[in-house]
Design goal:
Elements lengths: L1 E4 H16 L1 E5 L5 E16 L2 E7 L3 E6 L5 E4 H17 L4 E4 L1 H9 L15 E5 L7 E7 L15 E8 L4 H8 L7 H11 L2 E8 L2 H10 L3 H15 L4 H11 L6 H5 L3 H14 L15 E7 L5 E5 L3 H10 L1 E3 L4 H4 L4 E4 L2 E7 L2 E3 L3
Parallel strand pairs: 2-13, 9-12
Antiparallel strand pairs: 1-7, 2-3, 3-4, 3-8, 4-5, 5-6, 8-9, 10-11, 10-16, 12-13, 14-17, 15-16
Length: 362
């Protein structure tokens, strides 16, 4: 018996479910199953440390083809049984680490799965051919609501935004006092409020990382300022959901754009959807983004009922509406991501905020 994380099992669950069902439901903008639209799955391709595996879906069987071994046939019903076993583990285990029963371990070995998280350089979890085995492969990320999910935008130091402290010039003891506020869930907001109480102002200045700055500018030349304002509001007003934060941004209008652009053209919603879609399809803070699509073409979402829902870039409006309605800003660890304190650079004090965005759990 070995242990696996719930995130690893969520990925394997989605994979087995596709093979057992031979098709997948499209998702709606609200994260529900589109009852009228299913895509047939012909082949799923997965990468392991020792090479590529192709799983061809036949009438009653799955044919497993690897480079170095004879093809093997397994009943599709076996994948259904294994998927149900994993779903039971995900639902009924409270710990993040799960003990995998011997029967499941034996099946994983038999179907040649040794790495529970696929080994890829292009950030896809696996690739799917829809309708026909000759169809082009689409790369997918799996997000499972029954386990902790990888964020769409993983904070980290490269995702820091810089606010310049202006107004009153603080002496070093004052700065030390601000930075020494005790650890708490709201310590970043407490520091920002203390700066304001003491007569200081925090004004958007820049993106800390050069590559991330350029990536954000690809969305819009003013998008970094908009993002910084959303992160600031998340801390100060405890609003995390993207739709609610966007509504507040429309009221505050940090870019000082015309009302017609905000209301009729829905500028702020449009820019946020563009950004979320870019993140879902592979934009990362520290990697140059040039607007061309990566190997990731969509998300396979395992919902709370264990249904697998497909979001694909060919259904762009549904995909971006889903991301917009189902995303939230999150707080990364302060020490690790190096934000939430006044720091001096070239004689000027700066306060960094960290951008981290994930899908909501429900």
């Amino acid at each position: 018996m070995f242990t696996a994380t719930k995130r690893e099992l969520g990925e394997v669950y989605a994979f087995f479910r596709l093979l057992a069902d031979g098709s997948v439901s499209m998702g709606t903008p609200d994260g529900l199953k589109d009852e009228d639209t299913r895509w047939r799955v012909a082949l799923v391709q997965r990468e392991e440390h020792d090479g590529t595996r192709c799983y061809y879906i036949e009438e009653e069987h799955i044919r497993v083809v690897t480079d170095d071994k004879e093809p093997a046939l397994f009943p599709r019903a076996d994948f259904d049984k294994a998927a149900r076993m994993i779903l039971d583990l995900l639902r009924n285990t409270t710990d993040e680490k799960v003990e995998v029963p011997d029967a499941l371990e034996g099946f994983l070995d038999a179907v040649r799965i040794y790495d529970l998280e696929a080994k890829t350089d292009d950030r896809t979890d696996f690739k799917v051919a829809f309708w026909d085995i000759e169809a082009p492969l689409s790369g997918f990320n799996v997000r499972c609501r029954l386990s902790p999910m990888n964020p769409l935008l993983d904070g980290g130091r490269t995702a820091n935004l810089k606010l310049e402290q202006t107004g009153v010039r603080f002496a070093v003891p004052t700065v030390n006092k601000i930075n020494a506020l005790p650890e708490s869930p709201d310590e970043v907001a407490e520091r920002m409020r203390m700066i304001e109480r003491l007569g200081g102002t925090l004004k958007y200045n820049d993106v800390a990382d050069r590559v991330f700055r350029c990536n954000l500018l690809m969305i819009d030349l003013h998008f970094p300022r908009m993002l910084a304002e959303m992160v600031r509001l998340m801390h100060l007003e405890s609003i995390t959901r993207v739709p609610e934060l966007t509504e507040r941004i429309k009221e505050i209008n940090p870019l000082k754009i015309k009302d017609e652009l905000i209301q009729k053209h829905r500028f702020y919603e449009y820019k946020m959807k563009q950004f979320l879609l870019a993140l879902a399809l592979g934009m990362r803070p520290a990697k140059i983004f040039n607007g061309t699509d990566s190997a990731v073409e969509g998300i396979l979402l395992v919902n709370g009922q264990g249904e697998v829902l497909c979001y694909h870039q060919s259904r762009r409006k549904v995909f971006e509406d889903f991301l917009f309605r189902n995303s939230r800003f999150e707080k990364g660890p302060l020490e690790k991501d190096k934000y939430g304190f006044l720091e001096r650079e070239n004689g000027t004090w700066y306060f960094k905020l960290n951008a981290k965005i994930g899908l909501v759990k429900r």
